[in-house]
């Protein structure tokens, strides 16, 4: 029996990774009913990360009330895997941009709710955290998150600062005496798909601030505050976060997680594939189907299709990518081990129209691939 492993990212704005996996499986099995399929939905650390892990590995979704980026109580969630010790957290579920879409302001937004999710997981006995940090609304360097876990951030008069991007302007001292001691014995893996430093022209404020609602004046202000934050971290903790690739991810939450939990920042694709024992899953596979919304030169920087192809190459399993759109620099993608690329765009229409028919177009594209395989005696 032929075995196909389906390991895909979401198609942003149209289908979740789980939906894409299910459609691909259905499309193949209608043409090739005797094949075996294994689905590995993959999220990049943003929305859908918890569901990805729970679908692939099982476990329980935990519902919890936390503070949103503007300190309003909301219903949020995270996942606990079957071992009972591993929590999967999406910072976007507590501190994400969609929670403040009409009120975007990275001066005021805080990661405090993300810290509350971490605290709840610790209270339930978790000793390993997988944290996806995509889709943030914040630029607070993670001080909100750390404050929820007992760290104090003080100004020159030894008074607490506001736990947001604005508060970093007055930060003078960090007090770790009240930090939750359980963090010292907790393994923390952070799904981080960018390598931006904390501050500077390629840092958190300049690169990501505008999409969170910052104009040029605010970008410069937030960047100066992050520079002050880095200086205090170096003075009080002896840590130069600016040298850490990815410290600027999620408005500096990458830096905060490293500073206060000794976290490891890793590409999200590597964390997911390691967690599901992907190399073992594909060891007897005949074909891997991967994909994402758009494949182009940017896919070489830690995106799902190339990450899957890298693992597949070590097991000599061929890989086909099925994507929403195909951009430039595709030759480089082929050189990384993807044998063929298929776009689901079957009709030349604008995205807003194409997204409405994307599920059917994906299904039809998969059936075409399955028919080709059938000719090849599958």
User: Which stretches are poorly predicted, pLDDT < 50 over at least 5 residues?
Assistant: none
Sheet with most strands:
6 strands, mixed
Estimate the strand proportion: 15-25%
Mean pLDDT: 94
Strand order of the largest sheet: 3-4-5-6-9-10
Question: Any idea of the CATH class of the largest domain?
Answer: Alpha Beta
Number of helical stretches of at least 4 residues:
14
CATH fold field value of the largest domain: Glycerate kinase, domain 2
Task: Tell me the Rg in angstroms.
Answer: 22 Å
Shape: elongated
Features:
378 residues, six-stranded mixed beta sheet, elongated, 14 helices, Glycerate kinase, domain 2, alpha/beta, Rossmann fold, five-stranded parallel beta sheet, 15 strands, 37% helix, single chain, 2 domains
How does this structure look, described?
The chain has 378 residues and is an alpha/beta fold. It has two domains: 3-40 and 281-375, Glycerate kinase, domain 1 (Rossmann fold); 49-268, Glycerate kinase, domain 2 (Alpha-Beta Complex). The chain has helices at 17-31, 49-57, 92-95, 112-123, 143-148, 204-208, 216-237, 249-261, 268-275, 278-281, 304-315, 330-335, 351-354, 358-375, and strands spanning 3-8, 36-39, 60-67, 73-80, 86-90, 128-132, 152-154, 173-175, 187-191, 264-266, 287-291, 294-295, 319-323, 325-326, 338-343. The strands form four sheets. The protein has a six-stranded mixed sheet with strand order 3-4-5-6-9-10, with helices on both faces. Strands 2-1-11-13-15 form a five-stranded parallel sheet, with helices on both faces. A two-stranded antiparallel ribbon has the order 7-8. Strand 3 and strand 4 form a beta hairpin. It is elongated and about 75 Å long.
